[in-house]
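#struct-pred

JT: dropping the chains for the assembly here, can someone run the whole complex?
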Amino acid sequence: MSAHTAPDGTSVRIVQPPNRLKGKVGRGSPTLPPTVPPTFRALVHASAAAYSRHLDDQLHALRALATGGGMAAVETIFTIAHQIRGEARTFGFGNVGSTAESLCAFIEAGGPGRTRGGAVVTLHVETMVTLKAACDARGEAAGAQPLLDGLARAVRHVLSPERA
Amino acid sequence: MKAYAFDRASVLLVDDSVWMRVILRQMLKSLGFSRIQEAEGGDAALALIGSAPPDIVLVDWDMKPMDGLELTRRIRRLPGEARYVPVIMVSAYSTLGNVLAARNAGVNEFLVKPASPQTMYHHLVSVIERPRLFIEAPGYRGPDRRRRGASDEGTPRRRSTDHQPQQPQGPADRPLSQSEITAIMGGATALPVQPMEAGE
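RK: done, full complex below.
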């Protein structure tokens, strides 16, 4: 440990902490062992059905908030969308996660307060519901991109109408 | 090459989302961890750290009433060696301002959601192989932010007497990529010119 005192009298201690972690885990490869990703996917897959039901509940709540909650519901909508954004992709609902990410960005940009902002929030929610149902029926589909592109155009139309 | 013996290390997961805890727990299990504790919030986490300090803490940012930044600040002020524990923040809030706030709270590493085993492993290797000195100053307690491997010769000083402490320059509002965040957490004062995309 070393201690330094600045000219203004403030004291700064610089400590070399013990590396307990290194002492326990020893040496290892700098790159991820190839067995890890498939093991992770298998572990997550075992929880996917339960997560799917949870996501249905979240989308149901979002739909109720978007249609009847008004501006007071925006914070709650953001909280739920933020969770979906961080979780859905891992469980195989990547398109739903991307839509949630778009909704979070739209709310952070102040979109709900703009003209037709509420409609764009509802559009996001309905898109997530549609993509979730499609994923349940046919698995995650690459064909969702036109839907996501249309959503992006709606966002631009509200946030930057002069450039839409 | 031999694999790290992660089964010998203990991890504390702190996240108020049960599903995020599921994801991170499975990720840690797939890496070989078996000693995994979980807490829904900051108070429970501090109680666990007080009773049996873990070797690593994974912290979510967005929790109530105590968020991940405040939890990290409180960890850094604990008595004894518990305050040195590596803290990895896991968050989707990845703008420059957010990353700087995490760095200034004393976070070691910043992992962007959605997290992958690859990025998790990268950050674990970083705290294992490149531990940092610990700074205890009036306005900051946490890992040393001077650029790794750099000497002080000819570089800006980051002392209380500095007139203008350097902050990384870059766009404030857009989400940063994982490589940009890693550069900022490593003490960079400018963002990489051509950032790699997330998931590298």
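JT: nice. Chain B has a mean pLDDT of 84. The beta strands of chain B are 10-14, 35-39, 56-60, 87-91, 109-112, 134-137, 140-143.
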